[in-house]
Amino acid sequence: MANRILIVDDAAFMRMMIRDILTKNGYEVVGEAQDGSQAIEKYKELKPDLITMDITMPEMDGIVALKEIKKIDGNAKVIMCSAMGQQAMVIDAIQAGAKDFIVKPFQADRVIEAIKKTLG
């Protein structure tokens, strides 16, 4: 069974890029969300194996969403997506329980490497 992944990013273009990388590599994208509160709802509904989560989003950012998801499921696997220059936020995300992070613009091999590493 393919690993089921939820993509969270406020930019439709970024979601499309990640979806493309994942599906080409045999992963199943079970859902997409464009902000943190949607991510939490989708997580409860879909129970994905992994989430790719943008750090900076309107409404609720990725770090707040990550903390909320970790409250629901302490074993949730989340990989944060950040733009260059967000080191402090990446550190916050890792401390909040993120398993790894990938930097935009995405490089397919790095995305897949992070996912394989996280899923074990």
TrEMBL record:
GO biological process, one term: phosphorelay signal transduction system
Keyword Transcription regulation: no
UniProt domain Response regulatory: residue ranges: 4-119
InterPro entries, A to Z: CheY-like_superfamily, Sig_transdc_resp-reg_receiver, ST_Response_Regulator
Residue runs in coiled coils: none
Keywords from the named record: Phosphoprotein
Modified residues (4-aspartylphosphate): D54
Entry annotated with the keyword Phosphoprotein: yes
Transmembrane segments: none
One Pfam family from the record: Response_reg
PROSITE patterns in the record: RESPONSE_REGULATORY
Name of the protein in question: Chemotaxis protein CheY
Organism placement in taxonomy: Bacteria, Bacillati, Bacillota, Bacilli, Bacillales
